[in-house]
Amino acid sequence: MDKKEADKIWELAKELKVAMVVTEDNSTNTLRSRPMHIVQDEFDGTFWFYTKASGDKVDEIKDDSRVNLAFACREDGDYLSVSGTARINRRQDLIDKYWNPFVAAWFPEGKDSPKCTLMEIKVTQAESWESKSNKMVQLYKIAKANIKDELPDMGENTKYG
């Protein structure tokens, strides 16, 4: 992924802020999603999320590091799907770097607690969908497409990586 692609991914992700992080639970052969808030102020191909050092998602990542991040803003019609590999990272300098009052609410024992860790997700590929029109225009395009029996033009789809 080049810098231009990374910049575009970041432009979307930083506005959406929360991703549904999808992991695979090998014990039940099911996919699991949970909302997580990105914590960084810049993007170099890696997303960072705080997480407890133990729990289902940590075990799932140890079993299978492949993850998906799904970002969505229905109001704007912007969507971002990111595939990558995850690992748990306990580097204190990074925990200190990304620490903030929002995160502190989830970790009352503090940033030095062994329970506090980061999930590091290195992006391997991504895809975005962006609508360039408001909801009324989108509804018009859908209605028009139904009448003309054609597909509506709902915006731009881009693949990265």
What does this protein look like?
With 161 residues, this protein is α+β, with helices and mostly antiparallel strands. It has one domain (3-131): Pnp Oxidase, Chain A (Roll), CATH 2.30.110.10. It contains five helices and seven strands; from the N terminus they run αβββαββααβαβ. It has helices at residues 3-16, 56-63, 92-98, 101-106, 135-148, and strands at residues 18-25, 30-37, 46-52, 66-73, 78-89, 116-130, 156-160. A hairpin with a 4-residue loop joins strand 4 (66-73) and strand 5 (78-89). The mean pLDDT is 87.
Topology:
Layout: H1 3-16, E1 18-25, E2 30-37, E3 46-52, H2 56-63, E4 66-73, E5 78-89, H3 92-98, H4 101-106, E6 116-130, H5 135-148, E7 156-160
Antiparallel strand pairs: 1-2, 1-4, 3-6, 4-5, 5-6, 6-7
Brief summary of the model shown:
This protein has five helices and seven strands. By secondary structure, it is an alpha+beta fold. Strand 4 (66-73) and strand 5 (78-89) form a beta hairpin.
The structural domain count equals 1
SSE pattern: HEEEHEEHHEHE
Q: Distance N terminus to C terminus?
A: 5 Å
The CATH topology: Pnp Oxidase, Chain A
**Total helix count?**
5
Q: What's the helical proportion of residues?
A: 25-40%
By CATH's scheme, which homologous superfamily applies?
Electron Transport, Fmn-binding Protein, Chain A
- Please mark out the parts with pLDDT under 50 across 5 or more consecutive residues, or reply none: none
